[in-house]
């Protein structure tokens, strides 16, 4: 368990390798996401070179899951039917050994949301990706901490430092990788822990960019990479694209356009040169 | 009741003040809107500095409503489940004193749409925001006028002048503010009436920009401003951003990008300099 | 049946005429489409000069259909409720003589998808628009061929040549026009057959641009043009706008913005000058 800490160069090299891997193997990623993020999540996956499939009906998931490289579940704009669709899909994923990403949008906000997310958690996500506030709330509702607080509406109001203990406990308890994103992104599998410091404040002004990051992480996971590496790599590439897009942006909408364009052209060299540890 | 007519300077100064207020207090706005407008409504709220929460499940609204500053209901892409979700949310809003905006998309189009909207109207919106044709159709189905006509599909085919009597009657009957938008925007609380003349014809070529205006109005309403002031201010700021965005646009999509960018950077000074009465 | 082959000039002249026709008569197009394509399908129709109406509730379609010029049905993000809504709408369209476009997204992917699409096929679409892989899969599940293969997820992996026999059989069997799109677009009514070669590889990197093409075809169909001419014209105009948008694009998102802007300004002259046969 005491492997050497990852260097800047390790992380950058791996991210560059997986970035190319997504383009080369075009992983098919099934995404069950909220109504706000449908367009941007699919466009982020396409720009990355992956193949999105927004398939959610419980009549389809058990059959469709066999064809996909990874599944992404996002609990925004949750409904009863949606919660059932998510449960069917995650059970199917587990049955067929398809790794999946959980994005627990809105956790801590209502009982219905919390109960749904706890039920999904039993089906063993490979990666949990939320903002720092969501990770804090999720660890609490899972009974792992007593820490108060959580998102304000859907917004992040906590730092990576504040989320660290929650993220570690959640990762150990669920035997998965946890990514708590914000100004600093923190990724841990319970043992290893990486902090990354790229990105732009404009990323919080574009709706569903976090949801789309979960989808993007699914593409890296779909390569067969271990979840910790997939998550570090996806977060590094995504935040660096954010840095680059912010350079010429006049506001959130021109930022969004530039961001997706840059995901399409981003190179391993960009990652090596720009990666910042947090 | 006989307060002096509002001057250009009054309206502009108040809009400038509320514009800053949204950025300073970041009101949490719950939005139950149609499937077409999800992305743009959330992005408009984020660009404005507000915090959107697209929460609609009837299992969640009664609990979630306590945290929000305002609620926005939009009846586009209506379903039976959606109609029930809207009714639960508006009842919860009324119970907890949360002011809400009704955007009666498609009113006059079908019986199902009309019956749903009439049911919602009983729960006392603070603002009704529709295009002129929708306001005319809504006043008629509410039994307040005999005026024929309404939208063509979802499109506005009436002027502010044609909608004036309907808007006034609706405002008096519902004890609320009514905003009938179009080339000229008309806002009335039944006594006071303001006409604003900013905006660009390109605004009708971008889907759901009216829906997003209702969401934007919710942010101003969420500051605790009186509904008439909130509505005048939101419409003034929004249409002025439209003027500014049209200046460099090559078509509806570059207009949309510029428009959201400008909502992010718009200043009180822009409003004071550009406001035009209708 | 042996009418002379269409010349380049015939096709371009007709496309130019219908392009203007859409702007002049602003056909109201009812669209029941998947959750990913809502925004872009509506924006494409608005940019083209048509009037989109995203109305899908089974309570509304039988009443609303009487007002519309064409209906578009797209089976992406399918649910049980959605399948029922589509069936109600297509029956209503047939009853009232409203021509409709079927976009069989995901056909061949799951039993549920296939059964739903076969049921819809009985209600006689005027145009079936899919990518080449979807057309191959659809002809097979309709029992017309034994050809293996179909989309990979939602992606096209076949050429126009590979789809030709399937497209012809489908068109003859369903007495409709079939458009199989890809690098080369193929349009046939079973007798006539046209290949068009405009477009850009970036079009596959923007989500739902195929879905939006089906909606765009609905606008041309809504003019009362015969389905084969409507389909040829819509595909020609759309792919030429793709050529033009690709010229200055930096990636999929700036391409999308330019594409919608160009649909707004595209001229008959652009079509005449740029049309390429495949």
Description:
Three copies of one chain form a homotrimer. Chain A is built from eleven helices and eight strands. The first copy, chain A, has 278 residues and is α/β, with parallel strands linked by helices. The first copy, chain A, has one domain: 3-Layer(aba) Sandwich (UDP-N-acetylmuramoyl-L-alanine:D-glutamate ligase). In chain A, helix 2 crosses helix 8 and helix 8 crosses helix 9. The radius of gyration of chain A is 17 Å and the shape is globular. At the A-B interface, helix 2, helix 5 and helix 10 of A face helix 2, strand 2 and helix 10 of B.
The CATH superfamily of chain A appears as Ribokinase
Order of helices and strands of chain A: HEHEHEHEHEHHEEEHHHH
According to CATH, what is the class of chain A?
Answer: Alpha Beta
What is the radius of gyration of chain A computed over CA atoms, rounded to a whole number of angstroms?
17 Å
Number of helical segments with 4 or more residues of chain A = 11
CATH topology of chain A: UDP-N-acetylmuramoyl-L-alanine:D-glutamate ligase
**Major sheet summary line of chain A:** 8 strands, mixed
Main sheet: strand order of chain A: 2-1-3-4-5-6-7-8
**Number of discrete domains of chain A:** 1
Please identify the oligomeric state.
Answer: homotrimer
Spans where pLDDT lies below 50 across 5 or more residues of chain A:
none
The CATH architecture category of chain A equals: 3-Layer(aba) Sandwich
SS class of chain A: alpha/beta
**Global shape of chain A:** globular
Largest interface (CB within 8 Å) is between: A-B, 33 and 32 residues
């Amino acid at each position: 368990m005491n492997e050497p800490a990852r260097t800047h160069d390790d992380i950058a090299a791996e991210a560059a390798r997986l970035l190319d891997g997504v383009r080369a193997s075009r992983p098919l990623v099934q995404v069950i996401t909220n109504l706000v993020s449908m367009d941007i999540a699919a466009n982020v996956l396409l720009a990355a070179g992956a193949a999105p499939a927004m398939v959610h009906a419980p009549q389809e998931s058990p059959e469709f899951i066999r064809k996909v490289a990874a599944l992404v579940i996002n609990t925004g704009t949750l409904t009863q039917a949606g919660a059932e669709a998510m449960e069917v899909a995650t059970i199917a994923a587990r049955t067929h050994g398809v790794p999946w990403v959980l994005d627990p949008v809105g956790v801590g906000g209502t009982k219905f949301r919390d109960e749904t997310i706890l039920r999904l958690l039993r089906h063993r996500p490979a990666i949990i990706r939320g903002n720092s506030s969501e990770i804090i709330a999720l660890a609490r509702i899972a009974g792992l901490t007593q820490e108060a607080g959580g998102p304000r509406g859907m917004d992040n109001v906590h730092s990576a430092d504040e989320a660290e203990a929650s993220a570690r406990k959640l990762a150990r308890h669920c035997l998965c990788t946890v990514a708590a994103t914000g100004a600093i992104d923190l990724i841990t599998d319970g043992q290893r822990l990486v902090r990354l410091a790229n990105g732009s404040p404009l990323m919080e002004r574009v709706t569903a960019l976090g949801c789309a990051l979960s989808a993007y992480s699914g593409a890296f996971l779909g390569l067969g990479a271990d979840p910790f590496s997939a998550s570090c790599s996806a977060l590094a590439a995504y935040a660096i694209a954010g840095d680059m897009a912010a350079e010429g942006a006049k506001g959130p909408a021109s930022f969004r356009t530039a961001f997706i364009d840059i995901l399409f052209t981003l190179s391993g060299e960009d990652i090596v040169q720009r990666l910042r540890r947090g």
